[in-house]
Amino acid sequence: MTTEARPESVDGQQPGTVGGRQSGTVDGQQSSTVDGRQSGTVDGQQSSTVGERQSSTVGERRSEDGHETVAEAAETPPGVDPLRRAGGWVRERMGAATAAFLVVATLFGAVWATVTPAFWGHDEITQFGRSYQVAHGGFLPQRIADDRGVAYGGDIPLSIDGLMSYAFTDYNRRPPEPEPMAADRVSYRLLESAPVTTDATKPVWFTNTAAYSPIPYVPAAVGIRLAEALDLDVGGMMLLTRLAGLAAYLIIVGFALWTLRGFRWQWLAFAVAVLPIALFQAGTVTADTVTNALALLVSCLLVKGLFLGARLSRAEVAVALAATVLLPLCKPTYVLLAMLTVLIPARQYGFSSWRRWIPWACAVIGAGAFAVWMKIAAPTGDGMGLMRPPEQWHSVRPGDQLHGILTHPVDFLNTFVESIWLRDQRWFTQFFGELGFAYIDVPAVSILACLLAFAVGLGIAERLTSDRLRTWVVALTVLASIAMIYVTLYMSFTPVGYYLIDGVQGRYFVPLAIVAFAVLLRWMPVRLSDIRGITPAKGPAIVIVVATVIALAAAVAKYNYLVWG
């Protein structure tokens, strides 16, 4: 055998054989074949085929960034380099990106939960109102009396309503620069120290969130019930409700990243999961916390099973099927994303015979549940006009808008195009972060740092293997989901005859980012490599983590300065 036939390792050593088979190299390190198949070549280097990693022999398993196997770590003398042993265990069992996510998201999610004034999150007044309703068994939209027109909402303790009213007045105050946006810390502390008056309540309007099913509010509802059990004051209930949502985000997205622990793709998913806007929402009360988490989970499983061609474990199969049913009940705009799980080949699920239809059955159940809830929530659309200025209260008419789309599609298309020319730069900035109802954009350094993390993550990601037809289906689904965002807001929030599609925000595109990147990478062969032609892992991973931390720290610093001074 010539030397050219044998790939070189990082340290210049020749790779041996693993499990009786010749190993390939991944990032320049020795790796075994996967699922008993001979490895192919990637980026001009021999690599293992993508599939489920077998764990029966720990000596055949490598960490995702290729430092040492579990067996090698076990052979290291106990007194020698314990940090390296611990790091190897984390990379192998948890995944480096998962560990980094849990640290970064916990830290900055908790910071957002504490530095953001009460009810200054996106629609946080109405989001909390719906959460409180769900916590006390109000699963269906409830009509309330309102002299202005059709309205939905529920009863809220008077002490909480007092804090809501103060926050609403405060964030609409808009003082001139450089005066802090929040009027007074002391007033918030006094209102937050009041006991929760569960016996004294008043009806509160939240038509916009009454349209959502109870599913995305479960973590917040649990936080509210726990706060009541602990007899916390208003501020304590608010904080615990926020932290409950953050915990759900950590668990769901942490699992999503864990599924990619054997692939460099985990770092691109990590960069999306810790966007400033994603962690800001995870640290405030909103249905988007669970929605974003489930969308990222579905996306990671789709990348693993379809684009990387890896077999899913039993736990991953169960979670994928559950997410297929639950995501459509969170937000209507992502129902098509949930349906993409049917594109994962049955062999990657481990299904054969009649079981290959199980994903399709779950997709049907999810779509059916979505249709039923949309039927239940349809009447709330008649009250969405009350979110607009008084002169437009009765101008939001979903039926008329739908009729206009069907009878004059060219006019709707013109409105769509004009909306892009007028607002595309705003949506781009909002994708990285427009922070709640303070309407503070993340600083330019945060956007640049996130773009750097994306570029590096895209550059080191593995080459993808999905067939052309399935890739086109995913691409068209992403485009259709984007179209649904515009159509939904055109019908439910935009006045009839308005000059643009109003209410579109860049954060609505975050749940589609990972799948969109997967389609791009399937068709883009360019990857990063070092001078030896090897795709590195450790260095780029450090760059991504540092860049995201800088982005988050800068966003927090700017927000704290502008809000509190």
Overview of this structure, please?
Pfam families: DUF2142 (PF09913). Residues 59-70 have a biased composition (Basic and acidic residues). It comes from Nocardia transvalensis. This is Putative membrane protein. Residues 23-58 have a biased composition (Polar residues). A two-stranded antiparallel ribbon has the order 1-2. Strands 3-4 form a two-stranded antiparallel sheet. A two-stranded antiparallel sheet has the order 5-6. Helix 4 (124-135) crosses helix 8 and helix 13 (314-326) runs parallel beside helix 16 (358-377). The termini are far apart. It has helices at 70-75, 82-94, 96-115, 124-135, 158-171, 185-192, 207-210, 218-229, 234-258, 265-273, 276-282, 288-307, 314-326, 335-339, 346-349, 358-377, 398-407, 409-433, 444-460, 468-492, 513-523, 538-564; strands at 17-18, 21-22, 24-26, 29-31, 41-42, 45-46, 153-157, 201-205, 434-435, 440-441. It is globular, with a radius of gyration of 25 Å. 54% of the residues lie in helices and 5% in strands. By secondary structure, the chain is mainly α. The chain has one domain (94-564).
